[in-house]
């Protein structure tokens, strides 16, 4: 029995999207920007994370905003470029970009927690859902001043939104990505339950 060449093409395209997304997502934006700004290794500050929330602990809001934007755009760019080859490569690139940010090979697989990149891939795949997710995040963060809680609730709601609207492939993708995001936030979740989690603006 010979393999269907069309199916093989889709498989290789999806694999290429996954690898491309991973390599793009694994660029440590926060680490690079913090060093360029003269703060040294951001992993030695605050929580030791390379994401925007920890970069904010330097006191430089512009640097944190730049990190947030860069981490989000990694995901958006990966999806948009891969989408030229079809839906499967785009979904694979989205997953790869998120994995790359959370587990970058360059930093011994110890990266960020994925929130900005989560929003970045969400923007490219479904901007209306991204707006709904952003509203949930902003509302939760404003009410509680817990960035981690806002991320956890937003990520939990996103696959539900996709399921309800009948976008099953996206629901399945974001369910998997959400599980990883929650895993990356396990320490935050423990501190939230203990009442010791830092609020937005605290160093």
Give the overall average pLDDT. 89
Strand proportion, as a percent range, falls in under 5%
Q: What is the number of strand segments?
A: 0
Shape: globular
Give the N-to-C terminal Cα separation: 62 Å
Total individual domains: 1
Q: Could you state the order of secondary-structure elements as H and E? A: HHHHHHHHHH
Give the biggest beta sheet: none
Q: Low-confidence segments, ≥5 residues, pLDDT <50?
A: none
Task: From the alpha carbons, calculate the radius of gyration and give it in angstroms.
Answer: 17 Å
Helix content estimate:
over 70%
Structural class: mainly alpha
How many helical elements?
10
Question: Which descriptors apply to this entry?
Answer:
203 residues, mainly alpha, 71% helix, 0% strand
Summarize this structure briefly:
The chain is mostly helical.
